[in-house]
Amino acid sequence: MKKTTVINSELSTVIAGMGHMDWLSIGDAGMPVPMGTKKIDLALTKQLPSFQDVLKNILAELEVQKIYLADEIKTENPEQLAAIKELLPNVEIEYMPHSQLKKDLAQTHAFVRTGEMTPFSNIILESGVTF
C-alpha cells in the first residue's frame, strides 16, 4: 500500500504522470469543467473536502513553480487568497479573469473537484522540477 500523502488512485496517477510545466487544477464544487478534461471528483458534501485540505494534500507530492488564480479572488474571497499565499509563499502568481481561468481548465491534466462552497476557490498549479 502507498505510504505517501495522496492515496486517491486517480489523483496519484495524474500527479505521477506530470512533467515540468504541466498543469493540474483544483476547484470548488461549482466550477464548470470543460468536456474532455479529466475530472477527479472528491466532493462528498458541502465543504468536504475543503479546497485547502485538497491543496495541502497535493502540494505534499507535487512541485509547483507557478499558480494561476482568478482576479476576482482578490475582492470576493481574500481569506482564501491569503491561505493560498501562506501555503505557497515563494511561488509566482498570475492573475486572470475568471472566464479565462475556466477556459484554461481545458489545458490541465485533470480538474480536482472539492466540496468547497466559497467563491473563486479555484487554482491552476504549474508543475516544477525537483532538481
Please tell me about this protein's structure.
It is a single chain. With 131 residues, the chain is an alpha/beta fold. It has five helices and six strands, in the order H-E-E-H-E-H-H-E-H-E-E. The protein has helices spanning 9-16, 51-59, 73-76, 78-87, 98-104, and strands at residues 23-27, 39-41, 64-70, 92-96, 111-113, 123-127. The protein has a six-stranded mixed sheet. The longest helix is centred in the middle third of the chain and has 10 residues, at 78-87. It starts with 8 loop residues before the first helix and ends with a strand. Its EC number is 5.4.99.62. Its main location: cytoplasm. This is D-ribose pyranase. GO terms for molecular function: D-ribose pyranase activity.
Summarize the structure.
This protein is an alpha/beta fold and 131 residues long.
SSE pattern, N- to C-terminal: HEEHEHHEHEE
The residue-averaged pLDDT reads 97
The strand order across the widest sheet is 2-5-1-6-3-4
- Largest beta-sheet characterization: 6 strands, mixed
What percent of the residues sit in helical stretches (DSSP H or I)? 25-40%
| Number of beta strands | 6
Distance between the amino and carboxyl termini: 27 Å
Rg computed from alpha carbons, rounded to a whole number of angstroms = 14 Å
Uncertain stretches: none
Q: What amount of the residues lies in strands?
A: 15-25%
Query: How would the global form be characterised?
Result: globular
How many DSSP helices?
A: 5
Structural class comes to alpha/beta
